Amino acid sequence: MAAGVAAWLPFARAAAIGWMPVANLPMPVAPTEKNKRQDELIILNVSGRRFETWRNTLDRYPDTLLGSSEKEFFYNEETKEYFFDRDPDVFRSILNFYRTGKLHYPRYECISSYEEELAFFGIIPEIIGDCCYEEYKDRKRENAERLMDDQEDNKDAKLPNMTFRETMWRAFENPHTSTMALVFYYVTGFFIAVSVITNVVETVPCGSSPNQKEVPCGERYTVAFFCMDTACVMIFTVEYLMRLFAAPSRYRFMRSVMSIIDVVAILPYYIGLVMTDNEDVSGAFVTLRVFRVFRIFKFSRHSQGLRILGYTLKSCASELGFLLFSLTMAIIIFATVMFYAEKGSSSSKFTSIPASFWYTIVTMTTLGYGDMVPKTIAGKIFGSICSLSGVLVIALPVPVIVSNFSRIYHQNQRADKRRAQKKARLARIRITKTEGSNAFLHSKRNGLFNEALEFTNSTEEEQRLSKSTSLLESQHHHLLHCLEKTTYKCHIFFYDSLFVFLPLPASLSLSCFYLEAGLQNYPSRSPSLSSQDGVTGTCCSRRSKKHHTPLPNASAPAHMQPLTHTHTHQQGLQELSTIHIQPLSTSRSSLNMRVDDPASLNCQSSQITTAIISIPTPPVTTPEGDAHLPAAPTHQNVVKVSAL
Amino acid sequence: GLLLGAATLKNTLLEKDAGDSVEDELELSAVRHRPEGLEQLEAQTRFSRKELQILYRGFKNECPSGVVNEETFKDIYSQFFPQGDASTYAHFLFNAFDTDHNGSVSFEDFVMGLSILLRGTIQEKLNWAFNLYDINKDGYITKEEMLDIMKAIYDMMGKCTYPVLKEETPRQHVEVFFQKMDKNKDGVVTIDEFIDCCQNDENIMRSMHLFENVL
């Protein structure tokens, strides 16, 4: 029952009096309304804009947020209104839904923001009214396609732990990922072209011996062509087998169109090898050679446009089917008519209705070969009608196919353009983010310093550092710190400035860390990228037991290398086999030390291995210096790894 | 011919009502109707001001143009009886509400009808019921009229009933009704017979008070 009609229920109940005199049985007792509230106005404050409505209006849909008791969570006692911190523009549509019972989708709204608001207020999008539902669905589909495009781009990214098989598959699918793949791509393309040209040239008549008629080149240079064919088929077979090996799901790969084309391309050769000697099937063998031409379809891996064409044809299947069907109908009708019209004339080529099919097809497609022409007047009249209608029938579905193709093609163009723009966009985003993460690290370090300094009871630093860390930040830092404490690890962050700052938890005497190379997402533990993207370190610090002693005398040799894997750590003693970090001396350097002059550090030890990171982005200004805390007696150690 | 068509259109569509403003005369497409003032309605019906407000809000929500035509009426009423076909009964109801027989139920008609049904005396209610049954409004309920009404009521129940609805059930029901009501066995039921009989029937009397607290 629609909500608005609920207002008419009293009327319907009252009209039931009309049944009473007719009824023979006593009526059931009417339900009484227990607490009959007078309808009151509710104020909904959505980000400052006040909407007022009757409570009954909202109660019409009790399974939504506003209609149920869930809205009590948003009730503000002082102002006696319900406050929602949401978009007031979208809220208009939502409130109108309660009022009118119909949900409309405003065209100017972004589809995802609209869906979010609907989800927040507990309204399912399916009840969008018919007037707006199509638009909503279209936008949603567009959005989904766009997101899928983006996701496909992300698939290019190389994951670190790819097995050889996965690497190979990736190389096959995206040739531009590595040079080997590119080479392979071009080689196969070349061989496809060679194979196709061979097939074509094979049939060209070339040269003739004086006493024989012209023979095609294939027969003249049989051996040469056979060798070419063999070579191409070898390459194709190897390629197919490699793809089969690398495919993540072999069964699915074998069912895919491209693999079927591959198989069809190479099979005739093998079949031909097998049954050359058998006379009966040699005719069939010749037919099989026709299938060699399917090799040209292998080009669709190399050509985006071909793929689009294939996809378009697939998506326009219904239009093509309609075209075919209507053409068939028209052909049969006109063939029949022409046959009977031409039956009278002598030496007519229209010997039967199927024979007339040829004439009809040639006329309707406006080919007009002229090998069959009507001679009677009736035949000519019907022939002209036939050609006119042919134009119409063909012209009808063609625009649909064309528009489909155009849409898909442009979508692809857009995807390519977006891919190109994405890099620049990401770089810009990265810059702004690193500034943000610099600030975060700075304040994190300050936060940790604050905690560390509590141990040392040093007040000067504290005052200096306790500047503008907001409550949120400090709580966040505390959380991260707890995590670090729990796991005996600490966070290391890499960012564009190539500066890594590793503060150690106060109580741990080890230097344990693992480097994270997530440039964009600092809290994630995404392990390494490829060598050209940054350094990934696994840091597992190995410390021999003797280094449990207080640190000032300890020297912890460790190498830091650009590695590509992260190891898992053990609790307690860490494996730091890979990082050479010398604990800096106990003297405190000033907080404002610049990062790019390691020489000015007061380090006793001599080695600070610099890791070479070849990030091409310009270094962002780093937070002020780096500092370390006094090592004694609290075993604090701050190790600075400067990578330049 | 075109002008004639436009003129007839104008005449049929316009509501000649006191509340109409000049603009309504010019609008050919939309029929609008504004009810009489709240005070007048308060005087004419037995509803309080607040109740009238609530009623009007509900009314106007479903019918923004201010009048209900038969189609909308049937639509609204059918929503309460989804299993069956309430259109026939709604048609009879519509005629019962449309006291001035102009093809549309305005808010005044609506509210007057409701006032009788909810706040009227037994006499008035029975009168209203008689009016509903008397399809051609000639003062007599014939068996055919009653049969129509009965079929309409049974239609509202729909096909899936238990026990299953048989062809002759409405007819039998009509026979029972006439046996009870038609005192002088002349084949029709007059208003006096009807009221008399109903007042003597306890069940009917009790059921008349059933919907008193509806609003």
Automatic annotation (TrEMBL), chain A:
GO MF term list: A-type (transient outward) potassium channel activity; metal ion binding
Region (Disordered): 525-556
Polar residues compositional bias, start-end: 525-541
Annotated ranges, domain BTB: 40-139
Gene3D superfamilies reported for this sequence: 1.10.287.70, Potassium Channel Kv1.1, Chain A, Voltage-gated potassium channels. Chain C
Example of a GO biological process term: action potential
Keywords: Cell membrane, Cell projection, Ion channel, Ion transport, Membrane, Metal-binding, Phosphoprotein, Potassium, Potassium channel, Potassium transport, Signal, Transmembrane, Transmembrane helix, Transport, Voltage-gated channel, Zinc
Primary subcellular site in the record, as a coarse category: membrane
InterPro entries: BTB/POZ_dom, Ion_trans_dom, K_chnl_volt-dep_Kv, K_chnl_volt-dep_Kv4, K_chnl_volt-dep_Kv4.3, K_chnl_volt-dep_Kv4_C, Shal-type_N, SKP1/BTB/POZ_sf
Name assigned to this protein: Potassium voltage-gated channel, Shal-related subfamily, member 3
Organism, scientific name: Dicentrarchus labrax (European seabass)
From TrEMBL, chain B:
Keywords carried by this UniProt record: Calcium, Cell membrane, Cytoplasm, Ion channel, Ion transport, Membrane, Metal-binding, Peroxisome, Phosphoprotein, Potassium, Potassium channel, Potassium transport, Repeat, Transport, Voltage-gated channel
Membrane topology, as annotated: Peripheral membrane protein
One GO location term (cellular component): peroxisome
Domain EF-hand intervals: 85-120, 121-156, 169-204
Transmembrane segments: none
Subcellular location per the Swiss-Prot or TrEMBL entry: Cell membrane; Cytoplasm; Peroxisome
PROSITE patterns documented for this protein: EF_HAND_1, EF_HAND_2
Region forming the signal peptide: none
Entry protein name: Kv channel-interacting protein 4
Highest classification ranks of the organism: Eukaryota, Metazoa, Chordata, Craniata, Vertebrata
Primary gene name: kcnip4a
